[in-house]
Amino acid sequence: MTTATPEQRTVLERFPASHPRGSWPADEYAAVQRDQGVNARVVMDLDTDQFLVVTGRTPQ
């Protein structure tokens, strides 16, 4: 059995889940970051009810 090493994340920006456009603002922000070479993705933080744009980094 193998176990995965926890991934360290950096939160780049937060967007409220109650936004009328849903996750679109977060998705658009993440796309701009990816265009600039940042490996950004959108995740949902259920505890705070927010969409987070995060970049993952491997622990060294």
Can you describe what's shown?
This protein is 20% helix and 38% strand. A hairpin with a 4-residue loop joins strand 2 and strand 3 (50-57). Strands 1-3-2 form a three-stranded antiparallel beta sheet, covered by helices on one side. It contains one helix and three strands; from the N terminus they run E-H-E-E. The longest helix is centred in the middle third of the chain and has 12 residues, at 24-35. The mean pLDDT is 87.
Task: Write a short abstract of this structure.
The protein is α+β, with helices and mostly antiparallel strands and 60 residues long. Helices cover 20% and strands 38% of the residues.
Write the layout of secondary structure elements.
Elements: E1 8-16, H1 24-35, E2 40-45, E3 50-57
Antiparallel strand pairs: 1-3, 2-3
Q: Descriptors for this entry?
A:
single chain, 60 residues, alpha+beta, 3 strands
Q: Overall 3D geometry?
A: flat
Secondary-structure-based class equals: alpha+beta
- State the order of secondary-structure elements, H for helix, E for strand: EHEE
**Count of DSSP E strands?**
3
Average predicted confidence as pLDDT: 87
Strand sequence of the main sheet, in spatial order? 1-3-2
| Discrete helix count | 1
Low-confidence stretches: none
- Gyration radius, to the nearest Å? 13 Å
Question: Termini distance?
Answer: 23 Å
Helix content: 10-25%
**Largest pleated sheet:** 3 strands, antiparallel
Proportion in β-strands: 35-45%
